[in-house]
């Protein structure tokens, strides 16, 4: 739910904070005091479009912060989808800063976010219904979700979505085989040529590296031979000088003779003797390398030719031998698929028909559930509308068959007729703003406990009503608020009296500047405000007595 709202430099509001509570929160105040500014500020947090004109005159930027607590599972999942998570206490803070140059800065729990992310997350946090915000009711695409929440199990919907996805997957694979005979022949010729060329090359993983290594050794054989000869000379010596091995042998023999006179030199003698053996082993290894240096020039030519073949093939089929082998395997599989396409198509067609039949079975099952849910939903909504003094509105759920889609085989939309004898038409073409709010209030009452959004805002739901109708709207708002947080902007005392928490939005002029403040009212404050709503500027003792009576009756209704 929305726990805190902080507004700074939005229109006539310089700075104000509102601590909202569970249950029914009502905002009241004189016309033009700034109630719509609070709603505009909440809309800004929800990622809705804003204007630089919202920034208070003389300020460089405006700032709104909202803190949401006790997040629902849907909200937590939506946050995670964009890489965010609630704080340790389960809350999330959303901020938006609007600059006079049109720039906007958004943050979620202090981390940067975009306006589009705020909009995605906002729809699972708050639902606003008012003169211009009843998008859910105006969009037939969303009507089916209300009916599903009313009477279709999530398990059945999930089973259908899986079946529909499987059907689509098979259909996509089947479409890939759909080619005419000429196209098939061209594809077979191309793939056959590619497979034959690569198979004729006799590709072997690691061959290119081995050939390059041998080629490098052959091309540098003279340098290698010279280095080996130099090392051998240094070890074994030549006619004109003794080598290192001869010197070490002499040292080792001398020390061996000395050991009998100087036993302490034994360890050093052994170390030099080991060096002698190591040098003798090195000499043997050098002779081995020297014997391997000879090669047939024809071998180098064959290597060059083979590397050239691999290079040319690599330009066509992926560079490395490993990539070419992968290309070969893929081409062989594609060739086999095309050559066996008739059999494959027959097999996959059977699979598709089976998958489609299963999806259709589940879709029809869902459709039946929706038909039953729509009947119950229609009956309940009509009852709520009659309670709200809208007895002449005929509310219907139009359900038509349509091709299979991710939602099933139904096309649903809400129809209404506001005048007796007139045919029902799509709700977007008939209902006024006030009617939309009351219809949505009826729907929310019917769906109480089945909706995922924790906070509902009704902006001027009282448009065009008074007397007992206003009382009934207030009672219905209070009923809905028993299952979630409701925030309501109203001009009617009958609704305000039923609030669990009431806020006064008041405009004042100080030093030739207009300021709007928001204050939570205590009992005496509520009496004064209810009396003002009923009687205007002059508050009489009788009005205060009537206000107290309204609060007493509202408390009685709330506890009943």
Q: What does the model show?
A:
- This protein has 560 residues and is an alpha+beta fold.
- Helix content is 56%, strand content 19%.
- It is built from 20 helices and 17 strands.
- The strands form four sheets. A six-stranded antiparallel beta sheet has the order 2-1-4-5-6-7. It has a six-stranded mixed beta sheet with strand order 8-14-15-3-16-17, with helices on both faces.
- A hairpin with a 2-residue loop joins β9 and β10 (241-242).
- α6 (154-176) runs antiparallel to α14 (341-387), α14 (341-387) crosses α16 and α16 (433-446) crosses α17 (467-480).
- The protein is elongated.
Short description:
With 560 residues, the protein is α+β, with helices and mostly antiparallel strands. It is 56% helix and 19% strand. Helix 9 runs antiparallel to helix 11 (266-291) and helix 10 (244-258) packs antiparallel against helix 11 (266-291).
Topology of helices and strands:
Elements: E1 2-10, E2 13-19, E3 24-28, H1 35-45, E4 61-68, H2 73-81, E5 92-99, E6 104-108, E7 111-113, H3 115-122, E8 126-129, H4 135-138, H5 140-151, H6 154-176, H7 181-200, H8 207-219, H9 221-236, E9 237-238, E10 241-242, H10 244-258, H11 266-291, H12 297-317, H13 321-339, H14 341-387, E11 394-405, E12 408-417, E13 425-426, H15 427-430, H16 433-446, E14 455-459, H17 467-480, E15 485-489, H18 493-496, E16 501-510, E17 513-520, H19 523-535, H20 541-559
Parallel strand pairs: 3-15, 3-16, 8-14, 14-15
Antiparallel strand pairs: 1-2, 1-4, 4-5, 5-6, 6-7, 9-10, 11-12, 12-13, 16-17
């Amino acid at each position: 739910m929305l726990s805190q709202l902080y507004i700074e430099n939005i229109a006539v509001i310089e700075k104000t904070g509102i601590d909202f509570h569970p249950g029914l929160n009502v905002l009241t105040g004189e016309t033009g005091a700034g109630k719509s500014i609070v709603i505009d500020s909440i809309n800004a947090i929800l990622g809705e479009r804003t204007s630089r004109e919202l920034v208070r005159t003389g300020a460089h930027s405006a700032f709104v912060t909202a803190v949401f607590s006790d997040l629902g599972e849907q909200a937590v999942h939506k946050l995670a989808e964009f890489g965010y998570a609630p704080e340790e206490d389960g809350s999330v803070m959303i901020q938006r800063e609007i600059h006079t140059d049109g720039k906007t800065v958004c943050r979620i729990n202090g981390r940067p976010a975009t306006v589009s992310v705020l909009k995605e997350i906002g729809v699972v946090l708050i639902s606003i219904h008012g003169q211009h915000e009843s998008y859910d009711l105006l969009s037939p695409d969303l009507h089916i979700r209300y009916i599903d929440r009313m009477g279709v199990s999530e398990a059945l919907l999930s089973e259908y979505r899986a079946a529909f996805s499987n059907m689509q997957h098979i259909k996509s694979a089947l479409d890939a085989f759909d080619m005419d005979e000429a196209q098939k022949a061209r594809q077979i010729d191309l793939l056959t040529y590619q497979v034959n060329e690569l198979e004729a090359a006799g590709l072997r993983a690691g061959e290119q590296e081995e050939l390059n290594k041998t080629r490098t050794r052959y091309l540098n054989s003279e340098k290698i031979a010279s280095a080996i000869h130099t090392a051998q000379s240094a070890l074994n010596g030549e006619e004109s000088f003794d080598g290192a091995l001869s010197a070490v042998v002499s040292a080792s023999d001398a020390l061996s003779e000395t050991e009998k006179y100087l036993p302490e030199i034994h360890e050093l003698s052994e170390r030099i003797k080991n060096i002698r053996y190591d040098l003798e082993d090195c000499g043997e290894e050098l002779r081995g390398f020297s014997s391997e240096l000879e090669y047939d020039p024809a071998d180098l030519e064959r290597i060059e030719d083979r590397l050239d073949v691999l290079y040319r093939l690599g330009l066509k089929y992926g560079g490395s031998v490993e990539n070419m082998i992968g290309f070969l395997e893929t081409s062989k599989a594609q060739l086999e698929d095309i050559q066996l396409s008739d059999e494959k198509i027959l097999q996959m067609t059977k699979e598709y028909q089976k998958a489609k039949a299963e999806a259709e079975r589940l879709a029809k099952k869902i459709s039946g559930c929706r038909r039953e849910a729509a009947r119950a939903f229609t009956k309940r909504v009509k009852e709520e509308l009659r309670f709200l003094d809208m007895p002449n509105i005929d509310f219907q759920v139009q359900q038509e068959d349509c091709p299979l889609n991710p939602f099933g085989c139904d096309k649903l939309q809400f129809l209404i007729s506001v005048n007796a004898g007139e045919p029902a038409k799509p709700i977007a073409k008939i209902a006024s703003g006030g009617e939309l709010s009351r219809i949505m209030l009826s729907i929310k009452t019917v769906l109480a406990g089945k909706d995922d959004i924790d906070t509902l805002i009704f902006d001027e739901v009282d448009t065009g009503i008074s007397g007992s109708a206003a009382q009934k709207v207030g009672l219905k708002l209070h009923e809905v608020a028993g299952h979630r947080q409701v925030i309501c902007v109203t001009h009617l005392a009958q609704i305000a009296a039923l609030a669990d928490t009431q806020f006064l939005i008041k405009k004042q002029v100080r030093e030739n500047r207009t300021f709007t403040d928001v204050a939570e009212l205590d009992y005496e404050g509520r009496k004064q405000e209810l009396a003002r709503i009923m009687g205007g500027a002059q508050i009489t003792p009788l009005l205060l007595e009537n206000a107290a009576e309204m609060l007493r009756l509202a408390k009685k209704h709330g506890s009943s």
